[in-house]
Amino acid sequence: MSWFVQRSDTTEFRRRFRWIALFFTLAFLGILGRLFQLQILEHEENHAIAVENIVRRVSLATTRGVIRDRNDKVLAGSRPSYNLYVVPSKLDLATTWPKLAEYVGLQQEERMKQEERLHTILADKESPKRDQQILLKEDITRDAVAILTTHSADLKGVSVVPVPVRFYPHGEVGAHVVGYMAEVSGETLPKLRGAGYVEGDRLGVTGAERAWESYLRGTRGWEKVLVDARGKRREAQGIIEEDDKRVEPVPGRDLKLTLDADLQIAIDKAFRGELAGGVAVVEVKTGRILGLYSKPGFDPNALSGGQGKSVIRETFRQLYADPLKPAVDKTVSGSYPPGSTFKPFTALAGLEKGLIDPHASVQCRGFTQFGRKMYGCTHVHGATDLHKALGESCNVYFWNLVTQNQVGMDLIADMAQRFGFGQKTGLGINAEASGRMPTRAWMTYRNKGRYLQGFALNAAIGQGATTVTVLQLALAYAALANGGTLYQPQLVRAVETSNGTVVQEFTPRVRRQVNIDPENLKLVHKALIAGVQEEGGTAFKARIEGVDMAGKTGTAQVGHKLVRGADAEKVWYFNRDHAWFAGYAPSSAPEVAIVVLVEHGGAGGKHAAPIAFQVIRAYGEITAKRAGKGGTDPRASSDRRDSPRQNAPRQNAPRPRGN
Hints:
The protein is α+β, with helices and mostly antiparallel strands. Among the domains are: 2-41; 73-167, Penicillin-binding protein 2a (Domain 2) (Alpha-Beta Complex), CATH 3.90.1310.10. The protein contains 24 helices and 24 strands. The longest helix has 34 residues, at 8-41. It is elongated, with a radius of gyration of 37 Å. Residues 631-659 have low confidence and may be disordered.
């Protein structure tokens, strides 16, 4: 009977077994539920996380737009550059390093410096740089790249990384207007991340490079790649969907400027004898800028990073140590007293109010006395009317307008402001100065409630507190030449795609129409012709045969001050007057206006006017050459251009009109 009696331990085992079975059943059901949740309910989310772990989105570099001149000559482009990187922990200093130094042509001093740097990194066992790529040399030669590629199997830990570098084929010529690029600084990067900038990016700093950065920079693309646990690329094999695998980068837009590269080179050549200054050449009927030149300049290639950071530092050190201030754009950022180039606007102020009889004469004895102060003229002019006063630049005549004809400071300032003085031109590049066109109220405030008549005497001849920029003066003379239309200066002609398709074209814009009696403009025009083409004119001796131009010279005085402790022999240059010339050509049917400033150059007729004539002659030659003709004057007759005498020596050339 005992065989049929159930043992108590068996019953306990079965009871425990049921609980264990229930536990595993519930666990299994929980796992199935979790699997259902992961595989069915949350499939898309989990699949995305899994793909994210093995898929990397690699940024694809874009191409910066090219800047060209009006004739499609490249002013700023990009060239390929190659940087050399090494991983210190993988580099064998005993065998690989000597070969590498030889292949890239490291000089002994540089080689020792870099070798010491590598030893220092390797000596620190905790340094993260041991396993990181460090830059060894920037912009290595193409020959070095070829050698390194050939011997890549023997150069463990060495890599060559291609990077685009901005290139400026004309160097210093036009550097201020075109601009340069620089790496985004740590201070500005947080502000620019929202616009898509990252570490190592470069952006325009000055000139057109900065003003048109958003057009030029382009948009990065990206590509998704499959990587393993070590970060190495693997074949995607359908894991990455084709529609979502790659977005092509969008290249930056190209800029077509109104500048003429050949004319810029001609300006640089004409300016070689002078230390500092600026030149502006604009189209009279459009306001388009053909030439904008500032001297001294700088090499944008050195500042844009292609030659290494040490070159950048040294270049900036030289720029800021130079007393001639090469970093300053003398055409728009600097403002100067215009001197006698301002006299036509003083004359118009009186003519428009009927305060001047252009045929009435003033006796110039070489000076005038006002109160206790003596004001000297350039020389004794004798009987002088408006025509002679402008042509020969008689200060006494214009001082007499103030003292005898009631051509006061406010009247002069009003006329000048109508022609754009005392206001920014709106060019949109670099830090533009507005100049200064003082009024009676401003001078009274500045002098603590005192107003002296001498302030107006200075204003009448473009001295004292009156200052202008080179570009302002060029646009004002263009308005004189075209009948009173003051244009907005235009630097960019069009925005284009990389294949030349025009995206946006810019037409000339009129700032204002200066309503001037045509007869008064004609009086000034004839006087400006006399200043160049009549004997006694201040620019008469500077004229060039075959060049038809009207204009006005200026010699603007500067404050003769000596800083305490400075050597007088070393600062004499900065106490010299500024030399000016402002005019337009040809005088019969003006096409271009030109302004030349020679900073501390001395007399305008001796230093600025010759440069202006050389530039206008070059303009005529360039224009004629492109038209398939010879000649120098832009409006020379066709028989003169086609004549065999066009290449004859200057002394045999026809005399200019009016002589």
